[in-house]
Amino acid sequence: MKNKSRLLTTIVALATVAIGLTGCSSDSGADDDTVVFRSAYLPTANYLTTVRTTGVLEDELAKVGATAEHIGPLDPIEAYNTVTSGNADASSTGTGYFVNLAANDSEWVAFALEKYTGDSQGIVAAPGTGIDSLEDLYGKKIGIDNPGATGDYLVHQAFANAGLDVSRVELVSLAPGDFAAAFGSGQIDALASFDQNLANAVATPGAKLLVTGDQIGSYNWSIHIASREFATEHPEALAAVYRGLVRESQRAQADPSIITDAYTEFGAGDEVVEVVSGFSTPQILPLDAAAVADLNALAEQYVEFGFIDEAPEIGNYVVNLAE
């Protein structure tokens, strides 16, 4: 099929390094009958990452006779492959990537939505470009991550929301580690990104934030996903994980430094942390009817933007653990 998930094509081409990366078995360090929830966590401040140091997850899992193992930090490709190779049970991603997975009938299920206003994602014009609006980007280069991923979605949604022609800009795929150099050297005229990478661009002297996700009706949030095998075989343990994430979210609402401290741990400078501290604090929500409706709307956008051929029925790829 033409256009069959451009993001997944990119992932398949790149994903070769993580199989056997950690070599952790499901009963590592535990009795044979003990369920071990193995989390492949990312170097970002989502709650599946921050919870590894707080004991909240272990507390909830202990109530159902299970334990936790935290594997990482891994970049998204490594995390994806660590789970699909059987060396972990769950990880985190963006809702757009999750739609791509569902469109390819993958063996993943979402179990917790980490929803925020969208102010932590956006498009930033590079210093010295003189770009003051989205329309000024016509004929310019915008750095994104993978085709069909968050940056690509933000550009398409921002231009659609503004009634502009996205075909009149050039999208340049970059590895996240190359964002800062490309942004500061003139290799790109703007960057579409999120979280720490967005904050780093915003903190660059002379940069201009053009638009954020909350201004364009973005459906792009964070989402926590598990292998269907783990979700099917250990529903009580996965429900305990969900409860742990809810508790971690509540802790962050009361003390947002949980999030900024994580960024500091992963190497963010003071200027970047200051920008991050202004982002809204996300909350953990179940994959209920309202969340599924939003994700189905996102899937329809992905079809409209040419990222996938056909929208999947998201309800087949989620579990509602609040029921």
TrEMBL record:
Residues 1-30 form the signal peptide. SUPFAM superfamilies: Periplasmic binding protein-like II. Keywords: Signal. InterPro entries: SsuA/THI5. It holds the Pfam family NMT1. Residues 73-256 form the SsuA/THI5-like domain. CDD domains: PBP2_NrtA_SsuA_CpmA_like. This is PhnD/SsuA/transferrin family substrate-binding protein. It comes from Rhodococcus zopfii. The lineage of its organism: Bacteria, Bacillati, Actinomycetota, Actinomycetes, Mycobacteriales.
